[in-house]
Design goal:
By secondary structure, the chain is an alpha/beta fold. 41% of the residues lie in helices and 16% in strands.
């Protein structure tokens, strides 16, 4: 297949997802949730909508135009170890491997066994020539290159086994919000999307906020009262109850609006149902601090994206197709094999 034919196949996949009937979406979402209770129907549909947006014809062609990818390439065997923290999170890596002309040997996460297989099945129907380009594996040995996503602990394992090969090895990352005190109720509600989408399990979810005055917290917690429904999910509720009990037993200061706990901390990654916060006095010092912690931060959000290099509130989980995980250009890596 030529590069344009590969692009066209993914564009067609986006159109097929977008054309799914409600009952088809419900059936797919049910299967995904049956495999992983965190993947509720709403979250699955949200993830599929993000993929549809990514697979827009204009977006795809503009993205690929930035690279010099030959129409015909010598296919390398690329092992892709996928994460399973949010629905179909490994799709972008799979697509990148195929667009670059290589073969994808995929080891799925046990928590995301349904969606990637379904997407690949749809792709094969639309472009049968790709049927010999994707392989699902239990073990990834003898690959030419690797893309592995996991925790800091699993990254050490990946480094040991795959470090001698060309590889992209991703570790834990999270996202943060920077407030300047001018935020409105609507702004807080948009920020809540960045905190609660996918139950806060993604690397693009905000787990900590920086603000100039901690008095904002009470206003913020009141403004997001509409997210009380989060407690209807038993796993989220269990995390909320557990963390609340720990703070109460240990006498740790925190704020609580009934479904989200806010705790002052210098750490970045908060537990589920907890939002860390830190008060800053000087913007320049804050910027220096965030730059120093850049290796742990996937993205920053702020009101109308006023903070340099940030996304607007509510947009953390809407990355463009070229917003690469860990800021490593996957396509450039694959072309260079």
């Amino acid at each position: 297949m030529t590069l344009q034919e590969r692009i066209n196949a993914f564009v067609a996949l986006g159109k097929r997802i977008d054309a799914l009937q409600e009952y088809e979406l419900d059936e797919l979402a049910f299967r995904a949730e049956n495999n992983n209770n965190w993947f509720t129907p709403d979250q699955v549909k949200l993830a599929l909508q993000a993929i549809v947006k990514m697979l827009d014809e204009t977006v795809m062609n503009e993205w690929m135009r930035k690279y010099k990818i030959p129409n015909q390439v010598y296919s390398k065997k690329v092992g892709v170890l996928m994460a399973g923290n949010i629905p179909a999170v490994g799709f972008h890596d799979l697509m990148a491997v195929l667009l670059a002309g290589h073969n994808a040997h995929v080891k799925l996460s046990s928590t995301d066994q349904v969606l990637i297989k379904w997407l690949v099945g749809q792709l094969f129907e639309l472009a049968p020539e790709m049927a010999n380009k994707v392989f699902f594996e239990e073990m990834l040995k003898g690959m030419d290159a690797y893309i592995a996503t996991g925790s800091d602990n699993s990254a050490r394992y990946f480094e040991y086994y795959f470090g001698k090969y060309p590889s992209i090895i991703r570790k834990n990352r999270t996202s943060v919000a920077v407030l300047d005190g001018s935020e409105s109720k609507t702004d807080y509600q948009e920020l809540a999307k960045d905190i609660f989408q996918y139950f806060g399990l993604g690397c693009r979810n905000v787990s900590k906020i920086y603000l100039p005055d901690d008095q904002q917290l009470k206003v913020f917690l009141d403004a997001i009262e509409g997210y009380h429904f989060m407690l209807s999910h038993h796993k989220y509720l269990n995390n909320y109850d557990y963390n609340k009990s720990i703070y109460l037993v240990n006498g740790e200061a925190h704020l609580d609006n009934g479904f989200l706990l806010c705790k002052e901390s210098e750490e970045l990654v908060s537990p589920i149902a907890v939002l860390y916060y830190e008060v800053y006095e000087d913007r320049m010092k804050l910027q220096e601090e965030l730059n120093d912690k850049g290796g742990k931060i996937q993205c920053v959000v702020s009101k109308d994206a006023w903070y340099p290099g940030s996304f607007s509130f509510g947009k953390a989980q809407q990355p463009s197709v070229s917003d690469y995980a860990d800021h490593v250009d996957t396509i450039a890596f694959l072309i260079g094999l």
